[in-house]
Specification:
Layout lengths: L3 H12 L3 H8 L4 E5 L6 H15 L7 E6 L2 H19 L10 E5 H12 L14 E3 L12 H15 L6 H22 L4 E3 H12 L2 H10 E7 L6 H10 L4 E6 L15 H8 L3 E4 L10 H15 L11 E8 L2 H16 L5 E5 L6 H9 L5 E3 L6 H18 L7 H13 L11 H20 L4 H13 L14 E5 H4 L4 E6 L13 H7 L3 E3 L4 E3 L6 H15 L2 E10 L20 E4 L3
Parallel strand pairs: 1-7, 1-8, 2-3, 2-6, 4-5, 6-7, 9-16, 9-17, 10-12, 10-13, 11-12, 13-16
Antiparallel strand pairs: 14-15
Helix pairs in contact: 1-2, 1-3, 2-3, 3-4, 5-8, 6-7, 8-10, 12-21, 13-14, 15-16, 15-17, 16-17
Length: 596
């Protein structure tokens, strides 16, 4: 393994002249917040930081580093990248990363903690490997709970999802429901080897309330790096803060990409952490994804600058160019998109059609099917009944077929697929949702195929498959499918990327939505209306709502590696009025390229 001088030289060679990345890697600060947008080299820099810590901290040999993240997809990416890059960086192909580094999302960490120590709260938690982990709305719960008990679980879940800051009222609302929630899980569900996702986090938090357990893990994890920190909810926040002691804490993420407010991501969390825990703030400033793509680099910088200059937009002088076309009808818009995509995929590039809501792709899908053009339909949401039911059933079948030996032999996985293909039941999947089942079955096969091919132990492979199914995360494998065209929502695309991205129907009352910013903007007279578009006036009272929409817009655009194309049309809406282009198309100094 390299010494300090050698590892420092390797890191400097890898990161070149990116002073922000190097300052972070070599920093001796114990509490750091890093703003690291997509494409700015976050994962590579994180791995270099871990390597530097392993080499330069002599106490790390008897302790560990924890890489923690919000999503299963991000956790799997970190695992993959560290397994590939860290041994090379350390110049030690035989390094046992399992002894140096734990990588998990919040729920996976909670499960590990409860498996080891959960008996201190409830003796049944020692059998965590055989537990079913479900949402607070799962049909499984009806086998054990009364309707009033189910109501308590759903109310608690809503309270967590609606937690929008650390005001006393918000904390009191959680505490009012928490004891009853804990009691239902502790006395009814856990004895039956069932626990909810919220329950995993809550019980782990209570476990870390025990001083001996808390002190052990605060010392055991010498460094904790949290990725995607902007998506952290209140339960995850409490779990994390219980792990914070004298250890090194690094929070990485991008507040501009906070698009999960609807499932409880806490607003202004970076600011809260900086103030509450006296954390040093650092910012990566160079977009490496677009090193050779000046147009996309300028567009990325332009949108980010709007967040920073919202209250000073009258003097905003940043410029960018965007590919945008406006059509007379949905039909004309869809027709152009499909013809343009055909040229792109002929060049061996992959393409995604991203939408704010699934209905915005109806005409595009019709055109693709008319021409027998193959595509992957990823227009499902985490909360769709069919999406949840598929994961629950697939997990049950997988665990049953794997047996007590946790086998992942080819014949075992083939039986799982065969049984899932036989389980097409009309009470779960109707004609208009059958595509969800077919798409998820494809992703399940891809999960098995990729996991079997990985150079990891049989136990690790079993854990990975279980991990994905328990966390209902098959959608994160959409980048792995064979089709060159993927259709999904912007929320579903978070963390994924394609060569080219197409975003149709960027129209007022669709993007933003009629129930969100558009409704508020009309009520507060926050817009100017022109023949073809709306123009947002940047009222201070609409800042929060506008930035939420702009975050989604930014995430959609930054899924593209090479270029992004946006469209709108003035066809009739369902009320018989001509649609207008979204205010997002009429942002200050945003120029249009229509020649594509």
């Amino acid at each position: 393994m390299k010494n300090k001088k050698a590892i420092s030289k390797s890191i400097e060679d890898i990161h070149g002249k990116d002073e922000e990345q190097l300052d972070f890697i070599f920093s001796q600060k114990q509490r750091i917040i890093v703003t690291a947008p997509a494409g700015y080299g976050k994962t590579k820099t994180m791995i270099s930081k871990i390597a530097y810590k392993i080499v330069t901290d002599p106490t790390i040999h008897h302790k560990k580093i924890l890489a923690l993240t919000f999503s299963v997809n991000a956790a799997n990416k970190i695992k993959k990248d560290t397994n590939e890059l860290l041994p090379e960086l350390l110049d030690d192909e035989n390094v046992d990363l399992s002894k140096k580094l734990d990588v998990a999302n919040y729920h996976n960490l909670a499960r590990i903690l409860l498996k080891k120590h959960g008996y201190l709260l409830n003796k049944n938690l020692g059998a965590m490997d055989s537990f079913r982990i479900v949402s607070d709305y799962s049909a499984v719960l009806k086998d054990y709970l009364s309707s009033s008990e189910m109501d308590i679980l759903s109310e608690y879940d809503k309270c967590i999802k609606n937690f929008n800051g650390f005001e006393k009222e918000n904390i009191d609302n959680v505490e009012k429901l928490e004891s009853n929630y804990f009691e239902i899980l502790n006395e009814i569900l856990i004895p039956n080897e069932v626990i909810t996702f919220n329950g995993l986090l809550l019980f782990s938090y209570y476990l870390l309330n025990k001083k001996s357990i808390r002190n052990f893990y605060q010392q055991y994890y010498k460094m904790i790096i949290v990725d995607e920190f902007q998506d952290t909810n209140y339960l995850s926040y409490r779990l994390l803060t219980k792990l914070m002691g004298e250890n090194e804490i690094i929070l990485m993420g991008d507040k501009i990409q906070k698009i999960y407010g609807f499932i409880g991501a806490i607003p202004d969390l970076f600011d809260h952490m900086a103030e509450e825990f006296n954390m040093e703030e650092m910012r990566f400033k160079t977009n490496h994804r677009f090193d050779d793509n000046e147009k996309m680099k300028k567009l990325d910088s332009y949108i980010r600058s709007i967040f920073l200059n919202y209250s000073e937009m009258d003097s905003f002088d940043k410029e960018a160019e965007m590919n945008f076309k406006f059509f007379k009808s949905n039909h004309k818009e869809a027709e152009f998109i499909v013809e343009h995509i055909k040229d792109k995929i002929s060049d061996s590039d992959d393409v995604s059609i991203l939408c704010r809501a699934s209905y915005c792709t109806n005409e595009v899908i019709e055109k693709l099917e008319e021409q027998s053009i193959s595509y992957f339909n990823g227009l499902f949401n985490d909360t769709d009944r069919e999406y949840v039911a598929f994961h629950e059933k697939a997990l049950d079948v997988f665990l049953e077929e794997s047996g007590i030996n946790q086998s992942i032999a080819k014949r075992v996985l083939s039986r799982v697929v065969d049984r899932m293909e036989e389980l097409l039941t009309e009470d779960i999947y109707e004609d208009d949702t059958m595509y969800i089942y077919n798409s998820l079955l494809r992703l399940l096969k891809k999960l098995f195929q990729k996991t079997k091919a990985e150079n990891i132990s049989k136990n690790k492979k079993f854990e990975k498959i279980s991990f994905v199914l328990e966390n209902e995360s098959l959608k994160h494998l959409m980048n792995e499918i064979d089709e060159r065209i993927t259709i999904t929502t912007i929320h579903g695309a978070k963390g994924l990327e394609w060569d080219y991205v197409y975003i149709p129907r960027v129209t007022a009352y669709s993007f933003p939505t009629s129930k969100g910013l558009c409704k508020l903007c009309s009520a507060k007279q926050g817009k100017e209306e022109f023949d073809k578009c709306c123009k947002f006036q940047f009222l201070s009272s609409l800042r929060e709502e506008f930035e939420e929409v702009l975050s989604i817009f930014y995430v959609g655009i930054t899924r593209a590696k090479k270029d992004v194309f946006l469209f709108a049309n003035m066809g009739l809406n369902r009320y018989g009025y001509h649609k207008k282009a979204s205010c997002l198309i009429a942002l200050p100094n945003l120029n249009y390229n229509q020649n594509f």
